[in-house]
Design a protein that fits this description.
Blueprint: H1 4-33, H2 37-65, H3 69-96, E1 103-104, E2 111-112, H4 120-127, H5 129-141, H6 144-151, H7 157-160, H8 167-172, E3 182-185, E4 188-190, H9 200-204, H10 217-269
Antiparallel strand pairs: 1-2, 3-4
C-alpha cells in the first residue's frame, strides 16, 4: 500500500509537471517569433525553467509513485539545492535593493533619480555597455517614451510639472530638473544657448525620439528604481514559495524513508 506521503509527493509533482507544459510551450513560442533583443533575452530562461520543472517533477512523480528510491533521492537533492539557492537569492535581493530612492522636488509631482544612490552591484550591471545596449533596445521596443509623449502631449508646462511620472518616464523621457531647459512638449526641450551644465545628463539629452535621455545616468537610475521595486515584490513571493518548498521537501523525505523501509522489508520478508 502506497503511503500518504508518497501520494502527496506524487500529486504535487503531477501538478508541477502540468504547469511546466505551458511554460515550456511559451518559451518555444517566444523562440519562434523573437525579433527583438528583449524577446530573445526572455526565451532561453523560460525554456530552461520549463525543462527544469518538467524533469524534476517527473523524477519526483516516478520516485514517489513507483517507489524508485534513487530517483526520489535525486529529486530531494535537487529540491535541497533549490531551497538553498532560493534562500540565498532572497537575502541577496533584499541587500542589493536596500539603497536608493527617488528625490522629491519642490513644486513637482514627480521624483528624480540619481544613479549613485543605488547599490554598487546594480550600478555595475547598468554601466556595462553590453547590458545597457540591450536594456535600451527593450525600452525602445516597449515604447516607454512614445506613450509618455502621447499621454502628456497637451499639457502646459505648469500642468506637466504636477504630473506623477513613473521612474522610467522621469529618468529616460525628459531632461533632469537641474538642466532648466525650456519646455516645448513632454519629449521636446530647448537648451539655453551658451549654458554650462554641472549635471552630465544635460549634455546627454537630445530631442531625437531615438535618443532623448536613454544615455543619461538618470535613465539608468530610473530603471534601477523599477528593479528595486520588482525585486522586493519577488523576494516576498520567494519567501512564500520557499516555505512551500520546505513543506514539499519534508514530505518527500518521508516518502523516501517509506521507500527504503518498504524495500528493506521486501528484501528480508522472503516467500510465504
Amino acid at each position: 500500500m502506497v503511503r500518504l506521503s508518497n501520494n502527496l509527493v506524487g500529486i504535487l509533482n503531477l501538478v508541477t509537471f502540468l504547469l511546466s507544459v505551458p511554460i515550456l510551450g511559451a518559451g518555444i513560442w517566444l523562440s519562434n517569433r523573437a525579433s527583438t533583443d528583449c524577446e530573445k533575452f526572455l526565451e532561453r530562461p523560460v525554456i530552461a525553467l520549463g525543462v527544469f520543472l518538467m524533469l524534476v517533477s517527473l523524477a519526483g512523480l516516478v520516485g514517489a509513485c513507483c517507489r524508485v528510491s534513487w530517483l526520489l533521492w535525486l529529486y530531494l537533492l535537487v529540491m535541497f539545492l533549490l531551497i538553498v539557492l532560493l534562500f540565498c537569492f532572497t537575502v541577496f535581493a533584499f541587500v542589493v535593493t536596500n539603497k536608493g530612492a527617488g528625490e522629491a522636488l519642490g513644486e513637482r509631482g514627480y521624483k528624480e533619480y540619481r544613479l549613485g544612490d543605488y547599490s554598487h552591484w546594480l550600478q555595475k550591471r547598468v554601466n556595462s555597455t553590453k547590458n545597457w545596449n540591450k536594456i535600451r533596445s527593450c525600452l525602445s521596443d516597449g515604447k516607454v517614451c512614445s506613450s509618455f509623449q502621447d499621454q502628456y502631449l497637451n499639457d502646459t508646462v505648469e500642468k506637466f510639472y504636477t504630473e506623477h511620472l513613473s521612474a522610467l518616464q522621469s529618468g529616460c523621457c525628459k531632461p533632469s530638473n537641474d538642466c532648466n531647459f525650456i519646455y516645448v512638449s513632454p519629449t521636446v526641450w530647448n537648451k539655453t544657448a551658451g549654458a554650462v551644465y554641472s549635471n552630465p545628463d544635460c549634455n546627454a539629452w537630445d530631442n531625437d525620439p531615438k535618443v532623448l535621455c536613454y544615455n543619461c545616468q538618470s535613465c539608468k537610475a530610473g530603471l534601477l528604481q523599477n528593479v528595486k521595486s520588482d525585486w522586493k515584490k519577488v523576494a516576498v513571493v520567494n519567501i512564500i514559495f520557499l516555505l512551500f518548498l520546505i513543506v514539499v521537501y519534508t514530505v518527500g523525505c518521508c516518502a523516501f524513508r517509506n521507500n527504503r523501509e518498504d524495500n528493506h522489508y521486501g528484501r528480508y520478508k522472503g516467500p510465504y
